[in-house]
User: Fold Major facilitator superfamily (MFS) profile domain-containing protein from Streptomyces graminofaciens.
Amino acid sequence: MPMVTPTPSPPAAAPAAAHDPAATPSAQSAPAEGGVVALVAVLGALTAVAPLATDMYVPGFPAMGEALGVSSSAVQLTMTAFLAGLVVGQLLFGPLSDGLGRRRLLMGGIAGFILFSLVCAAAPNIGVLTAARFLQGMAGAAGTVLARAVLTDRFQGADLPRYVAVLSQIMGVAPIAAPVLGGAVLTVSTWRAVFAVLAVTGGLLLLAVLRKVPESLPPERRHGGGMTSTFRAMGALFARRAFMGYVLVLALAAAALFAYISGSSFVFENLHDVSSTTYSLIFATNAAGMLVAGAVFSRLVARGVRLNTLLSTGVGVAVLGALAQVLLVLTVGETLAGTWAALFVTVGGIGMVFPAAMSIGQALGRATPGAASALLGGTQFLFGALASPLVGVFGEDSSLPLALIMLSAAGAAALALVGLARPWRAEGEPGAPTSRK
Assistant:
């Protein structure tokens, strides 16, 4: 991905204008190119923490249940608790950071993540573990939501979607890589070591933030009025039709991706009788397709292609891939090559939807980047968490439930795009005026 030094920005807008959703506050004085690389690298690592913490301990579920003397459903509840904390944390940290600044909340969130990771590692029973996982998710949400807010503070124009694409690619690939990393830890230790590794990771991130992530929101650009004003800004974003359209497009695309992550192993290993090694290869290939889609997005943005055009293309590709899988099952039947190809196309489309929808949403919410990031990220994980168990609920003896769930999510994203976001209006494009509607 080409790294470019952001163009110097005009002086910051007056504090009164900061409350205007149509206003575009300028970026902070940009660091040199090496500083940009370091900043984006740290923000990318912060973005990866939540999905890594979500899935790294999954391979240890059986051993965890045996060690704590509980059922598999009780163990799975610890993941639900983490995801709930992740949603709540984003909705809390994002808006608060618009009034208090990013850096203090970011460091406090990471410190909390370290603490509750250690509590998880030492948890004596399932009750303590579940409560600690909820708090770990809340604290870990700071890195996810504030990384995007810092990007929006620092960059604008065509630079913003390029760097958002990096974070989106990490967000898409990290859940796929997490079980593999967790499995590696479990080969040499117990499930408790996974949480110890997460604590160490948090410590390294805290040091990185101290050195490479300065405050990006100066006092003159912060929102006064305390928490009431802060959450009123979030309510204003809720009322904006276009913004919520892009929020729903992103959230529904995440639902399709999480359904794929949770259900694809049953489809390939149980239905098509592939080995775990072959399934890992299939999973890695599809993840690579998602990365390529993100790289293509970055390249096309650099060449001036409209974000809404790329978003519409990504949604269309995802719909076609999911529809192809449904039609294949209903006509030809279950085939390994057909299922693999259809899912590759669908996941590739999602890989373009993520950075496009996130970039446009952050641009439309630039007056309150923390609140915008909270709504974009919070709904993304909420819809993903709701979609994850659906494949198992509707049966695992056919790939049709997975295909139908992904098609429904992608189709609903297309409806949100056309009915609410209305991409032909070109809102959120670099240099384009934003609407309050």
Observations:
- Residues 209 and 418 are 39 Å apart (CA to CA).
- Confidence is low (pLDDT under 50) at residues 1-30.
- The chain has two domains: 32-222, 230-430.
